[in-house]
Structures are given as C-alpha cells and as structure tokens.
Amino acid sequence: MTDTQTLEATTSDDQATEVEAIEEPKSFTVTLNVRRYDPEADDEPKWVDYDVEMYPTERILDALHRIKWEQDSTLAFRRSCAHGVCGSDAMRINGRNRLACKALIKDFDISKPIYVEAIKGLPLEKDLIVNMEPFFDSFREIQPFLQATGKPEKERHQTIAQRERFDDTTKCILCAACTTSCPVFWTDGQYFGPAAIVNAHRFIFDSRDEASQVRLDILNDKEGVWRCRTTFNCTDACPRGIEVTKAIAEVKAAMTSGRVS
Ligand code: SF4
Ligand code: FES
Fold first, then answer.
1. pLDDT tens across 41-88, in order?
2. Is 52 strand, coil or helix?
3. Domain locations in the chain?
4. Per-residue confidence (pLDDT) for residue 17, from 0 to 100
5. Which pTM value belongs to this model?
6. How many angstroms separate the alpha carbon of residue 246 from the centre of ligand 2?
7. Which atom of ligand 1 sits closest to the CA of residue 174?
C-alpha cells in the first residue's frame, strides 16, 4: 500500500471519481528508557532502553504493552481502564507525572528517548509499580464519605450553587499523580498530601455533610494542610484538571475563618 491512498466513489454512471486523498499514518521507531527494578534480582533500579514501532496517535501505555507482549514479558506496570478513568497508571514520564493512557506519542520529541519511571515518594515494589497503601491510608484518614444524621422523607436537596461549591473536587480518580509530584511529600511521606486534601474538600464544602469540622481538625495536624508550600506541582500533574492548589487554599481558609459555605 502506498503512503497516499486514493478513495474512489462511484457516480450514477458507474464511473470512478477521485473525491479525496487520505494521508496514511506513518509509523516510526521510538526509544523508551524505562527504569526497571526487580527486588529479587537487583540491588538498585537500572535504566533499560527499548525500541518500539509506534504510530503518533498511540499512547505511552501502548508502547509499554508492546514491550511487554513482544520484547520482555517481565516488565511490570499497573493499568486497567486504559481510558483515563481508573487512575491506576500514573507514572513519571520525562520527569512529569502523567497517566500513561493519556500521554500521546505525538506530544513527545521522539528524536530523544522518552524516560519512564515509577511515581516518586511511595515504596517501589517492581519496575513501574509502587506500594499505594500509604497513599490510601491518608485518603481513608480524612473520612471520605458523606456523614449526615436524620432520616429525610425525600432526597437531601441542594441548590445549584451549593453543588457547584465542591464540583471540581468530585472529579478525583485517586491516581496519586498530585501527591507524588509534591516535594513536601517526597521528603518523608508523612504529609497527608494533595489527594487526601482534595477528597476532604469534596465533603467539607458539601452542604449536606455534618462532619466538616472533624475533617478540618484532622487536617490541622502538623502533617496536614499547613505543610503545603504552594508549589503548584499538584495542579500541573492532575490529569483531571482539578485546581488542586486552590482546593488546598480553600481548606486552609476554612480552618482560619471557621466558614465552610
Ligand atoms: S486530585 Fe487529580 S492528580 Fe490528585 S489523585 Fe485526584 S485525579 Fe489524581
Ligand atoms: S489505565 Fe485507567 S486511568 Fe489509565
């Protein structure tokens, strides 16, 4: 097949007429430099090069699949939905946290290797897989569920404005891209981290919830919101476009003012 393929349509006289020329996508070789670590064989992680044939509209996740399926089946990484919903494939790509399933090859300079490694600040288990338990411990600690007493006869109604107050933070998919891009979290991993605060924000500003003060007290801890240094790494890293730093600032303001409306 040639690079340019001609589409033909048949007229009422059965004559083929050229109607459109479609450029066929070209594949090219991309080098992925992956930071590998096998706890049973390696003392330290090591960088390994892989050349992969890719199309521009494919993603880093497709490249990792190709390596695993065609070159080295021992490569370990997490993924599930492959469409930016489950949050399981956050990784550090060329030094920036992203979801591999949303990182398009055409957005990288393929004249250089693309560096892929595990997210930072959580214990490395194997290759691109980290232990997410410390991250989920912080999430559980802020009580991420609606707490309301009484038994209303109908739904608990909200105005549009009341719903909009926490709309942004409902979008979180718990990928950890924000928390593991935060220099404060890297220092010792004790800081609650942006994701836990985002999920606290989602309930603190929900007019139906009655435990806002409980969550504010939890985050008023020495490892809570006051450790945030407003570097904006978290906002830049969030694949859902959540204004993470703004949410943290709103939680700080609620603590000092005592107002959550
Ligand atoms: S706030 Fe964004 S980056 Fe952080 S865990 Fe949620 S979706 Fe991921
Ligand atoms: S695989 Fe589910 S978000 Fe990427």
1. 999 999 999 999 999 999 999 999 999 999 999 999 999 999 999 999
2. strand
3. 28-130, 133-257
4. 54
5. 0.89
6. 25
7. 5
